[in-house]
Amino acid sequence: MTPEKTSKMPVELATRTIKAGRDAARAAASCLAGGGLVAFPTETVYGLGADATNADAIARLYLAKGRPSFNPLIAHVGTLAAAKKIARFNEHSLKLAQSFWPGPMTLVLPKAESCPVSDLATAGLETVAVRIPAHPVARDILEAFGKPVVAPSANVSGHVSPTTAQHVSDDLSGRIDLIVDGGPVDVGVESTIVGCFGEPVLLRPGGLPRAEIERVLGAPLAQPTEEADTSDAHPLAPGMLASHYAPHTPVRLKASHLEPGEVLLAFGPALSGADPLRVLNLSPRGDLIEAAANLFGHLRLLDAREARAIAVMPIPDDGLGEAINDRLRRAAVPRG
Ligand code: TXA
Ligand code: MG
């Protein structure tokens, strides 16, 4: 869905931005309690939060993002005890939760019997996505609110995920109530999503490298089926919608040279002969952690140049490279 299609909101809201702090956590909690929409930083990307138990608030969240309604949301909580009220854990999921929470990992689990998360947020599925974020600002807000908060990335659906409060404001100003500005985020790509409703399966590569998860499980993670990865109609982890992380400018991958009119997203030593004014480097020293943190911000800046295409240098697939390449492949899917 293009942002243009969803730009007509019934009412224009006066979006406030406040600096993170104790007052901000209190303001965020009271806004959430009133059914409002609050953007806040997590360690991965900025999230757009709503009360996970309030279907009206969630409906407004889908509307603000222009998100297809079949795309379910992650419920964020502050503690494992709170997570257990939402979802059922087995041996595998408990091990992962204890090893990696708080942190950049989401678990998709069978719903608990009296799961308080609205059916609208889980898109009617029997499973629910849960995460305990590590960012202190997110944790303060969750603690002040005391209930689960659903939070997709705080961008217009189909757009690049936000890593600063300014990105959130660029996309959602006038559509949401509050933005809590906690500065740029650390990780820069979304959480890794692991399904633990059968054998553990990697639903979305992300901020926690696959190898760390496999080390704790002592076995390789299964891959989702081919169909789940490509079907827009019934996506398994619909971050997997084929074209999801999308700048407006076409993206050309594995570039070894720069065509006329293109700008370059570089990694490692820059291409010889490329005009430095047309280049942004994810990590001149070839560090994948630094590259992940820069990915969405650089894509936005290059997109704003209105070039013929964004050429992207090859990026190794290990560690966070798997998540970076996944996002870049989606950004490169041709759109009509
Ligand atoms: O890092 C993150 O995960 C960020 C921050 C804000 O926490 N959130 C985020 O949310 O990326 P979102 O909504 O952009 O992506 C959540 C993904 C979607 O692909 C969604 O379809 C998938 O999680 N998901 C949610 N519930 C699911 C379920 N029950 N089964 C399978 N996939 C699910
Ligand atoms: Mg998203």
Can you put this structure into words, describing what you see?
This protein starts with 15 loop residues before the first strand and ends in a 5-residue tail after the last helix. The radius of gyration is 19 Å and the shape is globular. Strand 9 (192-195) and strand 10 form a beta hairpin. Helix 1 (22-33) packs across helix 5. Mean pLDDT is 89; it is low at 1-8 and 226-235. A 10-stranded mixed beta sheet has the order 1-8-2-3-7-4-6-5-9-10, with helices on both faces. Strands 11-14-12-13 form a 4-stranded parallel beta sheet, covered by helices on one side. It has 2 domains: 16-230, DHBP synthase (Alpha-Beta Complex), CATH 3.90.870.10; 251-331, Rossmann fold (3-Layer(aba) Sandwich). The longest helix is centred in the last third of the chain and has 16 residues, at 288-303. It has helices spanning 22-33, 55-65, 80-86, 91-100, 136-145, 165-172, 210-217, 226-230, 288-303, 321-331, and strands at 16-19, 38-41, 46-51, 74-76, 105-110, 127-131, 149-150, 178-181, 192-195, 201-204, 251-252, 262-266, 279-281, 309-312. By secondary structure, it is α/β, with parallel strands linked by helices. The structure holds threonylcarbamoyladenylate and magnesium ion (MG). The site of threonylcarbamoyladenylate has 28 residues, from strand 5 and strand 6.
